[in-house]
Automatic annotation (TrEMBL):
Name of the molecule in the record: UBC core domain-containing protein
Superkingdom, natural source: Eukaryota
Lineage: Eukaryota, Metazoa, Ecdysozoa, Nematoda, Chromadorea
SUPFAM superfamilies (alphabetical): UBC-like
Residue stretches making up the UBC core domain: 1-39
Organism: Oesophagostomum dentatum
Length: 45
């Protein structure tokens, strides 16, 4: 699902917009959320 997200009919409009317009920021936020969920240290970059 994350490999090919459907940004034409998203469940989260803000995430879809960021995925299209600012992929680097989207990936940073996604990485931090995954780390937080798994209790891993978050990247600082």
């Amino acid at each position: 699902m994350l490999a090919e997200p459907n940004d034409e009919s998203p469940a989260n409009m803000n995430a879809a917009k960021m995925w299209r317009e600012d992929r680097q920021q989207f990936e940073k936020i996604a990485d931090n959320r995954v780390c937080k969920t798994l209790c891993l240290p978050q990247s600082e970059s």
